[in-house]
Amino acid sequence: MKNLTSERLCVVAKLTDMGNSNTPLEEQIRPLVNAAPYLVLDVDGIAFTSMMLGDMVNLYSSFQKRWSGRPNGMALVHAPEVTKQVLRLAKLADKLPVYDDLDQAWRSFGPAPRAQARV
Fold first, then answer.
1. CA nearest 29: which of 9, 43, 14, 18?
2. pLDDT: which is higher, 73 or 116
3. What residue segments make up the domains of the chain, in order of their start?
4. What's the CATH class of domain 11-108?
């Protein structure tokens, strides 16, 4: 009989650009940020504006503060080319890396810690 164990926890959220919101992104997804030390945001079709970029920086800061001192990671997937360019120009590509798909983002977080067998 095989037993399954959790390797590590990751939250994946699909963001959409639905127009103006009075609530900052950081507040909208705070429960997700607090849920797991790995966060992947699917930004398919979203061309970042300066305001969205500010939201992402605030979210990143909040995420890093929450998981400070522990292994963690945050990544974006499915970003349009214009969003990738904005991140590079803003010198945020190292903090908010963009990957083609979820599998690449997952692998970017590095190897999961392995449980040690007790003898």
1. 14
2. 73
3. 11-108
4. alpha beta
